[in-house]
Structures are given as structure tokens and as C-alpha cells.
Design a protein that fits this description.
CATH topology: Neuraminidase
Strand order of the largest sheet: 1-2-25-24-23
Order of helices and strands: EEEEEEEEEEEEHEEEEEEEEHHEEEEE
Shape: globular
CATH architecture: 6 Propeller
Number of helices: 3
Largest sheet: 5 strands, antiparallel
Length: 397
């Protein structure tokens, strides 16, 4: 279904600034208008509301995950379901507790990361390969957001999986060792299984302030462009840019964001943490995802829910006043509107902030080499028998 529908969105330039750690210069943002252009849509005949997970670079293969059935869905660009399969059974090809959304690899493979390893399937659901984690995993919790999955990248003609690290390093967030040894990502050679850790907490990171943080506080958002890596650590409003290869990485630039109403979280006393305990919170502010496309860096952020109102809601919940607590939480959440920051990839000029297209789900989005994909917001309180994804293009006027 093609439509000539355009959403005009004006940027808010005065409220965001840019700063680079190396060779910092005063940068005057240039005023830019952006347009969301609706190019096409995927219409998928399915009951429920599966979460969109990934799209390959060419936009020819899509993956979704249906939580109630634990099924991985694979579709073509028209929305036709090529296959749907579950690996939730007690079988040698079952991935166990899911750590990530399924990511498509090229036109013939799907990768699912679970507690039991990294599993590569063909489109029929047959296991092609299993790669073991570098160490046994302890407790784990995952927070799934639309379009937030691992990345398949090509380095020197070889395919790699860039994924959120699942290593425990024999420590936990209540110990200094955790913050000293932490790396956000694993770069995995899909042929050999060799792994490289990337993305420590750099000296200027807030996560080295002596406080303790839960898993979702520092959950990474990341993207690559050739041998350049763009990385943000969750609630820290910064982007670390690395030069990296198959064997090493080095920090090049740090960009700091100043985002209105971004409720940057505060750490807790480390004595509140216990080994094996894992916690996440979807209400906290965070840089959720990063994409590099058409000469631009797109940063999806969630401003977070006002912590004062959250405490009010929790206090009401504790004394059994569920309706009053829910009302405060709902009101606070309605004011927490996510957005997308746009930067020039070449010189890191800030180009503006844009809203999600009207009528789309605010949880996240996907991107291939040229287009962006937003899930249509489903009708409230109605179980629909279809899912629609809008294929859009960001145009600079």
C-alpha cells in the first residue's frame, strides 16, 4: 500500500548543545527542517501485536517476536509471513531464556541470543550453528524494545555479530570490580566464534562515580559505520565514538547531549545490591537506540518518568491505593514523550530533534540502509488481526 503522506516536523534547536571531548569547538547548529515521507507499508495478517525486531540492510527480510506464543516471525517486504517458529522446547536447538530480539542475517538466516548460547537458524527454523557464550551466565533480565536488537556488520569481508555483552566477569553492580571490568559489547566472528570486548566505562562516565546502578541504567545503544562505532550507555546522555577493528578499539570522540526533561538517573548505595540480583526499569530515562543512515546519526531517546511522581505512585501502591497510584503513574508517563536527535555524521553538527511520526508506536523503530520502519499504534482495547509497519524516509528540506 503506497500513499503520498507527509508529516512535517519542525526541529527544536535552541535546547540542545553539542560538545566533543577531543578538539572541542563551539559549534553553532544550523537550522534544518525535516520531513517524514511515507514510502510504503507492510501489512501482516496476524492476530495480536508482535514486536518488530530487525530488518536486514537491503530491507528484504524482517523479523518479529510474538511474546505470547514465543514465536519468531520472518516476513518479506510486503508483509507476507515466510515462516514462524518457536524454540521454546527442551531440545538441543532451544536458546533458553531470551536475551535479545531475533536479528536477521542477510536473506537466509535468523540469530537468536539466549542464555544457552547464540543460535543461528535458517528460515525454516533449522539450527545451522550454535556459538557458546564466553562464560557461564548467572542471573539475567531483559527489557525488549521495538527495533532494539543486535547488529550484523561486515569487517574485511567477514560477517560479525555485535551484541550487548552478557558476561558476568565474576562480579556484580555492588562491587567496584564490576565497573572497572565492564564492557558494553561483544564483537563476535560468526565463522570462528572469536570474540572481542568493546566499550568500557570511560574515565568521564557517570558510572564511575562510586554509586551502584541496575542493568537498564547502562543498557547500551549502538551502531556502526564502517570501522566507526557509536555507543551510548543507557541513562548517560553521551555518545562515545570509537575507531575499531576486528582486534581492537580506541576512543575518538565524545558527544554530550543536553535534552530538555531528560531525567538522568542517580545511582544507589552499592550496599543495596546483592550478587545474582538483576533489575531493570522501563520508566527510567535512556538513550534507547542509535542508527547511522544517509549521512546522519539518529539517536532515539526516552526522557524518563518524573522520579518525584514515581515516588508518589509507589507510596500509594504500598498502602494499597492502586487506583490512585495508577492514575499518577499514567499522568506522569503521558508527559514522557520520546524523540529522535539528528546529527551530521561527518562533522557532528546537531541538526535538530524530531518526534515520532503521528500514529506510530513510541517504543522504538527499525532502520535499513536507506529507510526507517515504524510500527502503527494498535487500536486501544481491541485485539486486531493484522499488524502494520510504515516504511518511511527522513528528508532534509
Amino acid at each position: 500500500m503506497k500513499q503520498n503522506l507527509t508529516y512535517l516536523i519542525f526541529t527544536c534547536l535552541a535546547s540542545l548543545l553539542i560538545a566533543c571531548s577531543k578538539n572541542p569547538e563551539k559549534v553553532t547548529p544550523r537550522q534544518v527542517q525535516h520531513i517524514w515521507e511515507l514510502v510504503d507499508s507492510l501489512n501482516i495478517d496476524i492476530l495480536g501485536n508482535p514486536m518488530m525486531a530487525s530488518v536486514n540492510e537491503s530491507g528484504t527480510l524482517f523479523s518479529f517476536f510474538d511474546s505470547p506464543s514465543s514465536e519468531i516471525l520472518v516476513t518479506d517486504p510486503k508483509g507476507s509471513i515466510l515462516n514462524r517458529f518457536s524454540k521454546n522446547e527442551d531440545t538441543p536447538d532451544a536458546y533458553g531464556f531470551r536475551l535479545d530480539l531475533p536479528v536477521v542475517w542477510g536473506r537466509e538466516r535468523v540469530i537468536q541470543i539466549g542464555m544457552l548460547g547464540i543460535f543461528i537458524y535458517d528460515l525454516e527454523g533449522k539450527m545451522v550453528k550454535k556459538i557458546a557464550h564466553p562464560e557461564s551466565l548467572g542471573g539475567a533480565a531483559s527489557m525488549f524494545l521495538a527495533g532494539k536488537s543486535s547488529k550484523i556488520i561486515n569487517l574485511g569481508g567477514q560477517a560479525y555479530l555485535l551484541m550487548k555483552s552478557a558476561r558476568s566477569r565474576d562480579t556484580y553492580p555492588g562491587e567496584q570490580k564490576f565497573y572497572d571490568t565492564y564492557n558494553a559489547l561483544d564483537l563476535i566472528n560468526l565463522e570462528t566464534g572469536n570474540m572481542l570486548e568493546i566499550g568500557p566505562f570511560e574515565p568521564e562516565s557517570k558510572f564511575l562515580d562510586g554509586k551502584g546502578y541496575i542493568q537498564s541504567d547502562f543498557a547500551p545503544a549502538f551502531a556502526t559505520d564502517g570501522y566507526k562505532l557509536y555507543l551510548s550507555h543507557g541513562s548517560e546522555p553521551k555518545m562515545y565514538i570509537y575507531e575499531f577493528s576486528e582486534t581492537h578499539s580506541s576512543l575518538d570522540t565524545v558527544i554530550s547531549f543536553t535534552i530538555p526533561d531528560f531525567f538522568e538517573i542517580e545511582g544507589k548505595d552499592r550496599s543495596e545490591f546483592s550478587k545474582g540480583g538483576v533489575a531493570v526499569s522501563i520508566a527510567n530515562a535512556a538513550i534507547r537506540n542509535i542508527f547511522v543512515q544517509n549521512g546522519k546519526i539518529l539517536i532515539h531517546y526516552h526522557p524518563g518518568v518524573d522520579p518525584i511522581l514515581m515516588e508518589e505512585a509507589r507510596a500509594l501502591f504500598k498502602v494499597g491505593k492502586q487506583d490512585e497510584g495508577n492514575a499518577i503513574f499514567k499522568k506522569a508517563s503521558s508527559k514522557s514523550v520520546p524523540g529522535i536527535l539528528v546529527y551530521d555524521k561527518t562533522n557532528f553538527d546537531f541538526l535538530g530533534r524530531i518526534d515520532f511520526p503521528s500514529g506510530t508506536d513510541l517504543g522504538g523503530f527499525m532502520a535499513d540502509k536507506e529507510y526507517l520502519y515504524f510500527q502503527r499504534r494498535p487500536a486501544a482495547d481491541v485485539e486486531e488481526d493484522f499488524l502494520m509497519v510504515y516504511k518511511m524516509k527522513l528528508i532534509e528540506k
